[in-house]
Automatic annotation (TrEMBL):
Superkingdom of source: Bacteria
Protein name as it appears in the record: DUF2851 family protein
Pfam families: DUF2851
Length: 426
């Protein structure tokens, strides 16, 4: 038995409504089950119950055993003083509030059908080689329910992605341009170097970036120097020497600590994703654009591809590393790369900004992510194999959120899919 099933039973009234009684034999009429609380505090807020012909308004707490009340120290917590009913699977001890009054208890185990328990066990039972618990049934739920759930999941994903944005805003006194700089730099590092580039962004005084606008050489020297990419002089070339001299000048001028604790990785990366290429592109972006934040926030879908398509400096047209010449090619950021910037940086930042400004979100907010092609990865492909349609990046983002925070955590009864499947079977 798990608490999530008891939450489901109480929330959706999967008990014989007309005949439930407290362990003291008092009749219970549920006028309102209450609002399900996923955070700390009682499990359901603002319930309305008639117990022994007396109307009560307050909260409901749910446990496997009554003694869990004491295991969680609720008897000492004033947040539980307004609990009007303790719903448990097994009543093994009487429980009391801080003031000494006893909390009425509903013991569920004698009210729940064997069929419901069997269907729940079947739903959440993990099996070898099974991608997700509901894999064989997920397409059986109504499109209306699934579409609403997908919308909620997308904004849950935005909420999670916005946590780091909120933290950076607090640390920077709401400097939106600085936060964009750090988050963009992180995403220019992609999966392999994202954390390194993020730490690099944190280490840079953003006032320097503002002063180096329209100075791509200085910006590139700063980024390469702080990344430790100018330290190896085994095969010096003119451009690297120029960067090194410029970086030394910037260190003296701005009193920078030139200590390098680590370096970005090249291993397992395609040459187009080498940190040398990405840092050069990033330097060109910030040298070319002023007020990048305002342009990014106001951009429509098509605007992103003109705003963020940037080349490297000329040197990198014939190099991927400092020490080896390659066939000449202009190495611009690609549409696919820009799509990732929009999905992972611009939209979460815009989400925070609009909320900070008190501006309501409408359909236009999700239009860019709906205009972008879906991501291609093994997780999304497995959902496709189950029969789900993945039309765009919004759909793929939703499925990644579903898989990461529900399917892999066995939270079937906190998922609209699991709830509807269990309801259909009972």
């Amino acid at each position: 038995m798990k608490e999530d099933l008891l939450h489901y039973i109480w929330k959706y009234k999967k008990y014989p409504v007309a005949r439930i009684r407290t362990t003291k034999g008092h009749g219970i009429v549920v006028q309102a089950s209450g609002t399900h609380n996923q955070l700390s505090g009682p499990d359901f807020f603002n319930a309305k119950l008639i117990i022994d012909e007396q109307l009560w308004a307050g909260n409901v707490e749910i446990h496997i055993k009554s003694s869990d009340w004491y295991a969680h120290n609720h008897e000492m917590d004033t947040n539980y003083d307004n609990v009007i009913l303790h719903v448990v699977w097994e009543d093994d001890v009487a429980v009391f509030r801080l003031d000494g009054s006893e909390v009425p208890t509903l013991e569920l185990k004698n009210y729940i059908s064997d069929d419901l328990l069997a269907n729940y066990k079947k739903l959440v039972q993990q099996r070898p080689n099974r991608f997700i618990n509901c894999g064989t049934d997920i397409t059986a739920i109504s499109s209306f329910s699934f579409d609403n759930w997908k919308e909620r999941l997308y904004f849950e994903r935005l909420e999670r992605k916005s946590e780091i944005v909120v933290k950076l805003l607090e640390e920077s006194n709401n400097d939106w341009e600085k936060v964009l700089f750090i988050m963009l730099l992180k995403n220019f590092g992609s999966k392999i170097n994202g954390d390194f580039f993020f730490d690099l962004g944190l280490s840079i005084d953003f006032s320097m970036i503002r002063k180096l606008k329209n100075k791509p050489l200085e910006l590139e020297a700063l980024l390469f120097g702080l990344s430790g990419l100018l330290e190896d002089d085994q095969q010096p070339n003119t451009y690297k020497q120029e960067l090194r001299q410029t970086y030394d000048y910037l260190c003296r001028k701005y009193e920078l600590d030139a200590t390098v604790l680590s370096k970005p990785r090249f291993f397992k990366l395609r040459p187009s994703n080498f940190p040398t290429i990405r840092l050069s592109q990033f330097a060109q972006l910030y040298a070319a654009e002023s007020s990048l934040f305002n342009k990014a926030i106001q951009a429509e879908t098509a605007d992103f591809y003109s705003l963020f398509v940037v080349p490297t400096s000329t040197f990198w047209e014939t190099h991927f590393t400092f020490n080896k010449t390659s066939k000449k090619s202009v190495k611009r950021t690609t549409k696919k790369f820009i799509d990732l910037l929009v999905v992972n940086t611009i939209l979460p930042l815009k989400f925070c900004y609009l909320r900070h400004q008190g501006i309501s979100l409408d359909d236009s907010f999700t239009k860019p992510v709906a205009d972008i092609a879906s991501e291609k990865n093994s997780i999304v492909q497995k959902y496709r194999t189950l029969g789900l349609k993945v039309n765009n990046a919004k759909d793929s983002q939703v499925l990644l959120e579903l898989y990461t925070n529900y399917c892999t955590k066995n939270k079937c009864l906190q998922c609209a899919v699991g709830v509807e499947l269990l309801t259909l079977k009972t």
